[in-house]
Specification:
single chain; mainly alpha; Growth Hormone, Chain: A; about 80% helix
Length: about 280
């Protein structure tokens, strides 16, 4: 499939609703980068020092511990992704990250304005807890899901273009976030974190309304769903949002297996007849 065919929506087999599927895959990477994950991933020591008020040595130690903690929950998400479903992981993951960032923003604001050392210490401890919880939720819900969903939602004809565009989007937004974070923390203080709070808040209904489930489905199943004219608001239908594979697809696959077995049997019978005919002719 060419880029022009993709932009027009696609017309070849497996390319139905190509542009819509392309945008859905690209959108996952956009939502990930606008969640604020890299504002803290790249600058967590800075966040802990400037916003939370920790000493540099402790901030760097907590950053190292958080990295190990992040890896653990990323593996947890990998093991449970088929049970949760892609859609569930993204929606609940974003909801959890939103709550963590909202609470973190409130805590950072409180810590920056209070003159009570005891309160500042407690607020700092709570802020660190929210950051660790944010990474746990993001690791389990989003770390691998964005990459997996992108490959599943795009058809075979457009998968390479969909994947390449998603990666390009991911790094472009990543670069923007990395460039603005130090400036934002320095000039906006606690208000900088409101950017990610609002981004996550608006991402939740987008995921709920527009993103169909791809877990436990063959790639051919997803092609069929879009070929049949999947509604824009997917939450209005049960089948596109359920984690369990729809029974009609299971029945279709069983029919395909039976048909394939029947064809193999017929080929074997024809071969036997051909051998018998040749043997009879030789005699």
């Amino acid at each position: 499939m060419t880029w022009s065919q993709l932009i027009r929506g696609g017309s070849d087999k497996g390319g139905s609703r190509a542009l819509r599927r392309f945008v859905l895959g690209l959108g996952t990477q956009l939502i990930v980068q606008l969640s604020g994950i890299n504002a803290t991933s790249y600058y967590l020591p800075t966040v802990l020092i400037e916003s939370v008020g920790l000493e540099e040595k402790l901030a760097r130690l907590l950053t190292a511990v958080n990295s190990v903690h992040y890896i653990f929950f990323s593996y947890l998400g990998m093991m449970l992704i088929d049970k949760w479903g892609r859609r569930g992981a993204m929606i609940y993951g974003t909801s959890g990250c939103f709550i963590c960032y909202l609470v973190l923003t409130i805590l950072v604001r409180t810590g920056q304005y209070t003159t009570d050392d005891g309160l500042r210490y407690r607020v700092g401890a709570a802020s660190v807890s929210m950051i660790f919880l944010f990474y746990a939720i993001f690791g389990a819900g989003w770390q691998g899901t964005a990459w997996l969903y992108n490959t599943e939602i795009n058809s075979l004809a457009m998968r390479m273009k969909g994947a390449s565009a998603s990666v390009a989007t991911q790094w472009a937004i990543n670069y923007m976030v990395v460039q603005i974070t130090p400036i934002g923390i320095l000039n906006l203080g606690w208000k900088f974190y409101l950017i990610w709070v609002f981004m996550q808040f608006f991402s939740i209904p987008i995921l709920y309304v527009f993103y169909p489930e791809t877990a436990n489905k063959r790639l051919e199943d997803i092609d069929i769903v879009f070929d049949e004219g999947l509604r824009i608001c997917v939450f209005l239908d049960k089948e596109p949002t359920q984690v369990r594979r729809p029974s009609r697809f299971i029945a279709m696959e069983e029919q395909e297996v039976e048909q394939a077995a029947h064809n193999v049997k017929n080929v074997g019978t024809e071969d036997e007849k051909a051998k018998h005919t040749v043997s009879h002719s030789e005699n």
